[in-house]
Amino acid sequence: MGYAGEFGPGIKALTLVFSYASQMSEPKILEFFQHVGVQISAGTISNLLVKGQEAFHAEQDAAYLAGLRSSPWQHLDDTLTRVNGQNQHCHVICNPLHTTYRTTSGKDRLTILDVLSNGQERRFMLDEDALAYLDALGIAQVRRKQLLHLPRDQLLDEVAVLGLLAEHLPGVGAQTKKWILEALAVSAYHAQREVPVVRLLMCDDAPQFQWVTDELALCWVHAGRHFKKLEPCVALHRQVLERFQKDFWAYYHELRCYAAAPTVAERERLEEAFEVLFGRRTGYWALDERIALTRAKKVELLVVLAHPEVPLHNNAAELGARQRVRKRDVSFGPRTREGCKAWDTFMSLAATTKKLGVSFYHYIQDRILETNEIPPLADLIDARAAELNLGASWELA
Asked: What is the pTM of this model?
C-alpha cells in the first residue's frame, strides 16, 4: 500500500489506531512510543497519519457506496470542524452497517447532495419534479417560462447549466438562481445511476434536508427536547407540562413496540392516537404552541408506521458526530485538505469496522501487510445487508 521506512506495520497500525480510533493527539502518540523505547519523530507520526493513504481512501469510498446501497434510508447529522483554523462542517452519514464522515466548507442543499453523491461532479436536470418544486416556492411565471428553454430530462454539468441560465434568464436574482440550481440538482441526483439514491433521510428539520429525498423522517428525541426547554412559572402549568411529557414518552414507547411487531390495526390506532395527543389544548400557551408545531410534523414523525425498520431517533448520527467532537477537542483540527481527508477516511473506517465486528487494528495491519485475510469492507457490508434486509417495507410497497 505504499508504506515505506524503517517502522514495521505494527507501529504504523498502532499510530493510526491511536489517532483515529482512540483519538489520541499526535504529541501523546509520540510520548507513548518514547516511553516504550521506539525512537520516532513527530514529523514521521504526522506522515504515517496522513501521507500515502490512497488505498485506504479508495476502500472507504467503496465502503460508503456499499453503505448507501445497503438500505433505502440513512441517518444524517453534521458538526463543526476547523480546517487550518477555518470553520467547516463534518457531515455524518450512517446506518447499522456503516458510518461515513465527509467534511465540506458549507452545509446548504447543494452540499448535502454533494455528500450523498460521494463528491461526484455536480449534475443538473430540468424535469417536471424540478418545475413542481419551483412552483411550490412561488417562482415568478416569467422566470418559469424562461426555464422552459433549457433542455428537458437531460443531465447537464455545472458549466453548461450556468451558461444556459445566463443566456435564457438574464439578470435573475441570487435567491431565484439558488432555488433553480437546487431544483435542477435534486432532479439530477434522483435520475443519475452512478451512486445509490437515498430514498429517506433520518435527520433534524433543518431546511437544507427538505426535498432532497422522497421522504424525511424526524427524530422523536429532538421533538421531545423542545418540550423539555419550556420553563413554566405557574404551578398549574408545570403540572400540565409534566403530564403532557409523560403522555408524549408513553406514545413514543408505543411506537417502538409497533416497530418491533407492526400490524395494520395498531398502525391505524397509533395514527388516531397521534391526533388525540397533539390535538390537545392545555391552556398553557407556550405548551399549546409547541404541541401545534409538533402536530404539523406528523408525516415526518410517523414515518415508522410505513417503514418500521427506520429508527425513531437520530442517535446513530449524533453518536457519530460526538466522535468527531472528541477528535476535534483533542486535536483541534487538521491543517491541510490532505489531513482533513485522512480524518474523514480513517474515522469512517474505524466506525464502519466496529459496526461490522472487525478489529480496526487487525484491519489496518492486514491492509498494510497486504495479506488481505479480511475481505473488502464493501463486500462485508453487501453480505450483511442481504441478511438484514434494511429496506423490507419498500419491497412490500
From this structure: 0.93
220's enclosing H/E stretch is helix 220-228
pLDDT score recorded for residue 2: 35
- Average pLDDT over every residue of 225-239: 96
Q: Compute the distance between CA of residue 166 and CA of residue 245 in angstroms, rounded to an integer.
A: 53
Question: 2: which 3 cell numbers?
Answer: 505504499
pLDDT tens per residue across span 17-47: 999 988 899 999 999 998 988 889 999 999 9
Q: Is the pLDDT of residue 292 over 50?
A: yes
Answer whether 65's CB lies under 8 Å from 195's CB: yes
What is the C-alpha separation between 228 and 287, in angstroms, rounded? 10
d(CA 92, CA 69) in angstroms, rounded, equals 16
Closest CA to 352 of 327, 334, 377, 384: 377
Please check whether residue 209 is in contact with residue 203, taking contact to mean a CB–CB distance below 8 angstroms: yes
* Residue type, position 279, single letter: G
Contact (Cβ atoms closer than 8 angstroms) between residue 168 and residue 184: no
C-alpha cell at 369: 501487510
Burial letters 157-177, b for 16+ CB under 10 A, else e: eeeebeebbeeebeebeeebe
